[in-house]
Amino acid sequence: MSSPIGDIRRAIIVLEASDDPAARRVAAALQHYDAERGATTTDKALHVASMPGQTTWWAAEALDRRTAAIRAIRERECPDMGVTAASREIAKRCRRYTGSSRRDPLLDAATENGRCSLQERRIRDYLGNERGLLVARKP
Fold it and tell me: Is residue 66 domain-shared with residue 39, that is, in the same domain?
């Protein structure tokens, strides 16, 4: 029967033999984790741990998926509307979708699988920020 640390050590051997530089970096990080004997976490060894106050990598990826879904809904449902009108329409569709038995992958992604917590203002921020730049709000 194999142990988790045994699996990690076998993975190190496989990753070290790879021609892929990313695989070798992961192997080195796992070796560091194994050598530290509990003094570090896998997140820290792999350099994916967030600092206090930073967004975790999994939360950032979830936000990216949600933003992409909202933009795709706009393209599919209201491509000719401006940002404000489109955000109002998308918010309305998300509210109607909540609790619906109908399934739609984009609306699932935008509403966190049917739980709508999106406000029109937040959707407007996602749509108005299509280049990934921060949009300053007027006071």
Answer: no
61 and 120 together in one domain: yes
CA dihedral (38, 39, 42, 46) positive or negative? negative
- The number of folded domains in the chain is 2
- Mind listing the pLDDT tens digit for each residue in 49-94? 888 888 888 888 888 888 899 999 999 999 999 999 999 999 888 8
Closest by CA position to 128, among listed 76, 65, 85 = 85
Q: Tell me how far apart the alpha carbons of residues 48 and 56 are, in angstroms, rounded to a whole number.
A: 8
* 69 and 92 co-located in one domain: yes
As given in the structure block, the two tokens for residue 66 are 């949600």
Q: What is the DSSP letter of 21?
A: H
Full-model pTM: 0.63
